[in-house]
Design a protein that fits this description.
Number of strands: 0
Number of domains: 2
Low-confidence stretches: 185-189
CATH architecture of the largest domain: Orthogonal Bundle
Distance between the termini: 48 Å
Structural class: mainly alpha
Radius of gyration: 22 Å
Strand content: under 5%
CATH class of the largest domain: Mainly Alpha
Order of helices and strands: HHHHHHHHHHHH
Number of helices: 12
Helix content: over 70%
Length: 231
């Protein structure tokens, strides 16, 4: 294992054990058995070290998301995605708190990738007629709720002791955004906005004989037809 990775892992262990959620660069160096000049050469300063810890955390988190093979049931994949997010937070509490810290001046680009991966699952949900709103809107609502629950569990475990909290919030959020499967199975009488959302999602996942200008125009019309339900 290279020294840089050793220092990142040592920093994470020290953060997990720290009652005030802070670490010293000296403690990190001592844990690895190197001098301060090595840390400064690799990370610049303490803020550089913590930023690298965040990047390392996102790398591990996104690796699980990228490796997840889509199943035939996008709704089940959506639930699994929520659960793996919370599980990662509980397994790496200190790093997770840093990953979604409000102290960041600029949101890490990896956080945007996590949102894009979630949106991709929601596009699949829309393609089978299960989504009530636009995938971008749904992704923001789900991610915000998922982060909120995860941060609550790892930041205040003594307060949030209900073991069923995460699945209950998950199901409440999903139920507000997803169409029940028994309704999806009855296309006759489906409101026009829902049909428009469905077709818009299919345009993102299926090839057509339309050119790019025509596809963009059709998407614009479908967005207009979806109206407020798509926003």
């Amino acid at each position: 294992m290279d020294v840089r990775l050793q220092m990142l892992e040592a920093a994470e262990r020290l953060l997990d054990a720290s009652p005030d959620r802070d670490i010293s660069t000296r403690a990190v160096c001592e844990a690895v058995g190197v001098g301060a000049p090595m840390l400064y050469r690799l990370f610049g300063d303490k803020n550089g070290l913590l930023s690298a810890v965040v990047d390392h955390g996102f790398d591990r988190y996104l690796a699980t998301k990228r490796a997840a093979a889509p199943s035939a049931d996008p709704v089940a994949d959506l639930k699994t995605g929520w659960d793996t997010h919370v599980a990662f937070a509980e397994a790496h509490p200190a790093v997770y708190r840093l990953m979604y810290s409000p102290a960041f001046v600029e949101v890490p680009s990896a956080a945007q990738e996590a949102l894009r991966l979630l949106r991709a699952v929601l596009v699949r949900c829309a393609a089978v007629g299960c989504l009530r709103v636009d995938p971008d809107v749904a992704a923001q609502r789900i991610m915000a709720a998922n982060i909120g629950v995860a941060l609550s569990l790892v930041s205040q475990p003594g307060t949030y002791t209900d073991s069923g909290l995460s699945p209950r919030v998950r199901d409440a959020i999903h139920d507000s955004l997803l169409v029940p499967l028994d309704q999806v199975a009855q296309p006759v009488g489906t409101p026009l906005p829902g049909v428009a959302l469905h077709l818009a999602a299919l345009l993102r996942t299926e090839r057509t004989s339309l050119g790019e200008p025509e596809t963009r125009l059709l998407r614009k019309w479908l967005e207009e037809l979806a109206g407020p339900s798509g926003k």
